Amino acid sequence: MNRHASSDRADLVARTATIATEVAARHANDVDRDARFPSESFAALREARLLSAAVPRGFGGQGAGMLELGNQCAALAQGCSSSGMVLAMHHIQVACIARHGSDSPYFQKYLRENLVERQELIASITSENGTFGDTRSSICAVEVDGDAMKLDKDATTVSYGAHADAQLVTCRRAADAANSDQVLVLFPKGSYTLEQTGTWDTLGMRGTCSPGARFSGHGKPEQVVPGSFADSSAETMVPYSHILWSALWTGIATDALGRAAACVRGAARRKPGSVPPNAADLARAYVDLQTMRNNWQACAMEFDAMTATDDAAARETLGSMNWALKMNQLKMACSEAAPRLCHQALQIIGILGYKNDTPFSVGRHYRDVLSAALMVSNGRIAGKSASMLLVVKEV
Amino acid sequence: MGNESKIRAILKEHGRLAKDVDTLDDNADLYQAGMTSHASVNVMLALEGEFDVEFPDEMLKRSSFESIAAIASVVDSLTAASA
Description:
The complex is a heterodimer of chains A (395) and B (83). By secondary structure, chain A is an alpha+beta fold. Helices cover 56% and strands 10% of the residues of chain A. Chain A contains 12 helices and 7 strands. In chain A, strands 2-3-7-6 form a 4-stranded antiparallel beta sheet, with no helix packed on it. Chain A has a 3-stranded mixed beta sheet with strand order 1-4-5, covered by helices on one side. In chain A, strand 2 (143-145) and strand 3 form a beta hairpin. The longest helix of chain A is centred in the middle third of the chain and has 42 residues, at 229-270. Chain A is globular and about 80 Å long. Chain B has 83 residues and is mostly helical. Helices cover 51% and strands 0% of the residues of chain B. Chain B is built from 3 helices and no strands. Chain B has helices spanning 3-14, 37-51, 68-82. Chain A binds chain B through residues 136-137, 173, 177-181, 228, 230-231, 234, 316, 319-322, 384, 387-388, 390-394, and chain B through 17-19, 31-38, 41, 44-45, 48, 54-58, 60-63.
């Protein structure tokens, strides 16, 4: 790694942190109250050309690894959880295209022109009515007829679909394929319609704007991502999702505890010489925050080290049960730690944290992280881990 | 009964395939035939029981169980090692 590359990457996180403070945080309450898309955050990220952070350097992107992307998402989530989540989801989609489509001229052009030059935002449609939250199963199927391709999907949740420039959609490989035999298909703006079928009036993560929608797209067979979703899911979508989500949940918890710490410091200043009674609770909470941060960062560094040295071998490892268990454990740990830490922050701050209009308010943080255990339900994940542990010998 | 036919019997009982196992070639892709990762765990457990072997963790990946031929070769390597 040369000096230029590492300073560029530090810059990536620092520039995002500036946007988090100066833009995302300023609009976070408004985004939350009105359940509206954080358009200011994304205009600023696009302007700063930060939406192509995950695009490999060969295509003109910043080529950031998992650790940098995680730090970037965490930094943004400290200002606005929904902004951090949308950025993470965008990177997940970009990574799927970059890691599984880069041999195809169609996706090479898309990476270079749409993602880097035009800084476009990609949403994904992985949920479907009737699959009950199992992303590794589809009912809808892509139909290829000569040079034409089409797909219809009835999705239960489509995050920021109406605000994105493209949709990356899971579906069965063909009309006669099994439910688990899936592929990913990319539909750029203009090649699809998205008809909203539900509402998004939720407890938290309101700015992700994720109502149900009926998708209908058409295009050419080249828009199908090469290979199978079974592989792109295990090798890319799952690690990027679970690590980047864990990172941004850590960012939200960091901001909540930061407010608790500011509250404790304020009390200490009013009465120098005596340690405020809630300072010890803050000390305990930071123990858990450190564990949480180290957990996702260790997984991110392991992913980066593996993929940097021998990507073919890395893909084998990423497809193993041991890695799948590690990702499940990370997701469960961080999604459960984040609400616990927001709860602790609230206990430390007290009524000023409970109120929605003080500098110490943590209600939004708390509501936002309650989504963590539900987006890919921890119950489902625990069930999958339990099943794998019946055959895995050393964890 | 040869290993392939024992493997077929296990797939029939635990693979939850969308297609009839008897119509599948030894090299046919079992995941494309509808085997989910959850079903594959049950297949692994049944194979460990049937052949009295334990799959080491490095073999617990999709490619080891992607076809009847792949499973047979994994089972062969383990039974040969314990013989």
